[in-house]
TrEMBL record:
A biological-process GO annotation: lipid A biosynthetic process
Enzyme class: transferase
Gene designation: lpxD
Name this polypeptide is given: UDP-3-O-acylglucosamine N-acyltransferase
Source species: Shewanella salipaludis
InterPro entries per record: Hexapep (IPR001451), LpxD (IPR007691), Trimer_LpxA-like_sf (IPR011004), UDP_GlcNAc_AcTrfase_non-rep (IPR020573)
Amino acid sequence: MKSVTLKELGLLLGADVQGDASLVITGVATLEAAVDGQISFLANSKYRSQLEHTRAAAVLLTAKDAADYAGNALVLADPYVGFARVAQLLDTTPNAAEGIHASAQIHPSAMLGEGVAVGANAVIGARVILGDGVQVGPGTVIGQDSIVGSNTRLWANVTLYHDVQLGRDCIVHSGAVIGSDGFGYANERGQWVKIPQTGGVRIGDRVEIGASTTIDRGALGHTEIHHGVIIDNQVQIAHNDIIGENSAIAGNSTIAGSVRLGKYCIVGGNSAIAGHLNIVDGAHISGGTNVTSEVRVPGVYSSATVAMENKLWRRNTVRFRQLDELFQRVKQLEKTLKTED
């Protein structure tokens, strides 16, 4: 079990210690579930009532909240970021693999750095390069001419096709497929003619890719995921997309081909972005939104309707179909009134 004192955590976070600096912390938990030895946090005002009754050994708080709290605390500007840092320090997640398993298939031309671990039944193709400290989980396949940067972790049953490059300190979760063919076809008199997808995938440093997410290779040129991007589970990123630094894409979202998503963008869950669009830096796409035109100005964009009773939804659907007719009637009415004036 990992442990650290409150004083040590304060130094790590640049936080002020309130109470017993020698207190030993062994884990993290919510205010409601925390027990002795665990540290919690308050980042949302709706949970402030739990602060009075929490059994946490210490709590991460803002100065304002700490003024009304008599227990042990770390006082800092952003308790949620502080919680994330503490959780990393006390993380008990096991490695994706340990050592080189006897059943792993590693091509003689592959180059493995120091401390690389490869799990059972993993396959490492020709001319693959794995940086120092890379972890390759059981059943994972890395295709020929691919490169994986130092300290990147590939969990079980990840598939990297040929000519895929991942940077340093990335995490790829189980079932993710990177470098599969993009959806590229020409139509000749009703028959689909496949266009070979000859580009690759280039992924920067500190990128996290969720379970069962698919990132297609480029048709010509590369699909690019830049530094610091986080991608949730079951996301589809099509060929030749470019995802800007530190953007976040939530689960079940789909981005069609040749989209340029800017830096620091947020794409809410179950959203869809049509192909060949540019999305400006800092755009926030709400969950369930369909983006069908370019987004040129930073801001929050939404298109989904809120949940309502089915009968009301059905009536409103009918009225939505009548909007154009209503618009034309209003336009004609305005024209008539203007003529009468």
